[in-house]
Specification:
The protein is an all-alpha fold. It has five helices and no strands.
Length: 188
């Protein structure tokens, strides 16, 4: 544990020493006196030697972390790709069911619910594609999926006679909050 703490301190001090080196070099260049300041050059030389020694220590330590992080990123990308293929399969199957239900629909509510599920799957697919490209997730897309999923749930359970007023107000409040967040984040 003490080795990790020592290496962390060395890494953070190494960055501060590099900053001091750059600062002292710019100070020496900005002087009007053409003769170099011996004291500043000696100080800069010592700082450069210390930074080089600390870089060598840090470089060995961080190479393991870089390799481990890269390996984990590749593994997680593979998991995301498996999810992508699974969602693609579900989307194609959902579209097939939508065409099938179009001709045999007994309740239009079921067809609308299946179309909304297809939209949710497409949005989720888009979120995962954006993650693979940028290695970050867009919150606006997640809010879109949340809003559509909530609406889909309302359409499926559209027997509003059984819902009491408290549940209806809670659902309305949730839609309002999700919509507000979507608009607020979209402005940024």
């Amino acid at each position: 544990m003490s080795r990790i703490l020592r290496n962390f301190l060395v890494a953070s001090l190494g960055n501060s020493i590099k900053g001091k080196i750059l600062k002292s070099k710019t100070e020496n260049k900005s002087d009007d006196d053409p003769s170099p300041h011996l004291r500043g050059d000696e100080h800069t030389g010592r700082l450069m030697k210390m930074a080089k020694m600390e870089e060598e220590k840090v470089a060995q330590y961080t190479q393991v972390h870089k390799a481990f992080r890269k390996t984990l990123e590749i593994c997680f990308d593979m998991v995301v790709m498996v999810f992508l293929f699974f969602i693609l399969y579900l989307t194609v199957y959902s579209i097939y069911l939508n065409f099938k239900l179009t001709y045999k629909v007994a309740e239009p509510k079921l067809l609308i619910a299946n179309v909304l599920v297809t939209i949710i799957l497409i949005e989720t697919y888009r979120i995962l594609i954006i993650y693979l490209r940028q290695h970050r997730v867009s919150l606006t897309h997640i809010l879109e999926v949340g809003i559509v999923a909530l609406i889909q749930k309302l359409v499926v359970a559209s027997d509003f006679k059984e819902l009491d007023a408290l549940k209806l107000f809670a659902i309305a409040g949730l839609i309002f909050v999700l919509g507000y967040l979507y608009i607020k984040i979209g402005e940024e």
